[in-house]
Design goal:
single chain, alpha+beta, Peroxisomal Thiolase, Chain A, domain 1, two-stranded antiparallel sheet, globular
Length: 365
């Protein structure tokens, strides 16, 4: 049996209310276009409609000092006097590398031994040697490293599949997620689809361990499917200014159409009764947005207490891509209101369109 434990979250340096972030974004859009006050007000109105509300994000964590300021020529990344979209891909990756290197040093202080195997998960930056390789190099180079990159919001499940295999010859596998989503906003992208993306994502960092020691969350099953003929629903690609996401309007409807059969396969793998889980289990739904949580809850007839941890993470952290699900797991693992022996069903969605899920049992310890 495989167990998840020892969750360790590091929050980004800056934390801002959603309203302030959206106001800054509206200013950035107008400045990038060298446009007038009316254009900024129009974009802000759209952003507020998309990103504000009772069931929407309240605040997000950010690693960039840029956001919230308006002296554009002094920005590290969003120097809109230099270019209307800010710095290019190279400059953004230099910043990513600096932040991630420091994160690994904080996750693994000098007195902390490194695991036998280390998996680094991210889809928001690429640099070699990576932060994981740097920390291992400085400690003697004995830890094996695997990079799980560019799989989007469902990458945590891929990390678990890898870790499960590596436990055959390792006593402990660590997984570290480093997502700097705030690096990849484009003030020249004014389409509603892009405003949705810009209003949704925050930065997030988390480390946890996979062992055979009975504590934390026991992994009962993993399952993944690609929805046929849905390749253009979610796209995450490189361009000259950074990483760009395309998010189609039909993503929720595609997920809802396939989720019942997916969930049946996932719970069958765990040898559990789906009806009982729907009535008594807890659900870690990746918050691709409030609509995703609401519509899945409606489809599966879930009660508010079954999905409250997903709502909490979305409203207080935003969508942190691959780091989001582990943040929900950490909150559930530490919540005394979730009893020992409780079943937790978790799923996320990414490019493909991919549905990826896992079933866990809370062990405590």
């Amino acid at each position: 049996m495989v167990y998840l434990s020892d969750f360790h979250i590091l929050r980004p340096q800056f934390e801002m209310e959603q309203k302030a972030i959206l106001e800054w974004l509206a200013m950035a859009h107008a400045y990038a276009e060298k446009s007038n006050k009316q254009f900024a007000e129009l974009i802000q109105k759209k952003l507020f409609k998309i990103g504000l509300g009772e069931d929407k994000i309240k605040k997000r964590g950010l690693s960039l000092p840029d956001i919230g300021h308006s002296v554009w020529k002094e920005m590290m990344i969003y120097n809109l006097d230099k270019a209307p979209y800010g710095s290019g891909f190279k400059e953004r990756m230099i910043f990513f590398d600096k932040v991630v290197t420091q994160l690994f040093e904080t996750f693994y202080p000098t007195e902390t031994p490194l695991p036998c195997h280390l998996i680094h998960v991210t889809c928001t930056g690429y640099m070699a040697p990576s932060g994981a390789q740097k920390i291992v190099s400085s400690r003697g180079g004995k830890t094996e490293i695997t990079h799980a990159y560019h799989m989007g919001c469902c990458a945590a499940m891929a990390g678990l599949r890898m870790a499960k295999g590596f436990l055959n010859d390792s006593s402990k596998v660590d997984i570290v997620h480093t997502e700097l989503c705030s690096l990849h906003m484009n003030p020249l992208a004014h389409e509603n689809e892009q405003l949705v993306v810009q209003s949704l994502f925050g930065d997030g960092y988390i480390k946890y361990s996979i062992t055979s020691e009975k504590k934390g969350l026991a992994l009962l099953s993993l399952h993944e499917e690609i929805i046929p003929n849905s390749l253009e629903a979610i796209e995450w690609g490189c361009c000259e200014w950074g990483l760009s996401m395309n998010l189609a309007q039909e993503v929720p409807s595609l997920i809802l159409r396939e989720l019942p059969s997916f969930l049946k396969s996932l719970t069958n793998k765990a040898g559990l009764d789906l009806t009982k889980i729907l009535n008594e289990g807890f659900f870690a739904i990746h918050p691709g947005g409030s609509k995703i949580i609401k519509e899945i809850s409606r489809l599966l007839k879930l009660k508010p207490w079954q999905v409250e941890h997903s709502w909490y993470i979305m409203q207080n952290y935003g969508n942190m891509s691959s780091a989001t699900q582990p943040h929900i797991w950490e909150k559930m693992e530490k919540d005394p209101q979730i009893p020992k022996g409780a079943t937790i069903v978790s799923f996320a969605f990414g490019p493909g369109l991919t549905i990826s899920g896992g079933v866990f049992e809370k062990c405590g310890g």
